[in-house]
Amino acid sequence: MVKKRKTGRYMLDTNALIGFIQTNKLPKDIREHLENFTGFMAVSVIVLKEIIHLVKVKNRHIGCKDISEVLQIIDAQNIDVLPFTRYDLDVLNDLPVYQNNLDPTDRAIVAHAISMHATLISSDAKFSQYKDLDLWSF
User: Fold this and answer.
1) How confident is the model at residue 5, as a pLDDT?
2) CA 9/CA 105 separation, integer angstroms
3) Less CB within 10 Å around the terminal CB: N or C of the chain?
């Protein structure tokens, strides 16, 4: 498990947000830290796009029937939803391409966390190869 928590700013990857929604799916130390955290915590709009795809297209059960329920949980936890901006596109454009991570959604989420100078919370081991990413993996 890689733990880097030097930024004091957190962004949740798709799997981390789903784990947060499904209380037993996120490691206890991360869940407790986030539940007591009062600083900057956010998700990229890209994460929400991916959740819509998982629920509507892939019929994946995440503990919410649609995005409106996800947004209610996000609002209740004071998690910001961040737009993907031109600056985020610039960071994405400069992001190295690794053959084991060609997924455009993953790459956009990584770029967004880098551009926000935030620690990305994720279970995706491929993200550890991005040297500019501050990652808290589980």
Assistant:
1) 56
2) 21
3) N
Fold observed for domain 26-94+104-137 = Rossmann fold (3.40.50)
Kindly state the tokens that stand for 17: 């947000």
Q: Are strands 9-12 and 119-122 parallel, antiparallel or unpaired?
A: parallel
Q: Where are the domains of the chain?
A: 26-94+104-137
Q: What is the pTM of this model?
A: 0.92
The number of residues in the chain equals 138
Say which amino acid occupies 91: V
Q: What is the mean pLDDT of the chain?
A: 92
Asked if 43 contacts 79 with a C-beta cutoff of 8 angstroms, the reply is yes
In the predicted model, is pLDDT for residue 1 greater than 50?
A: no
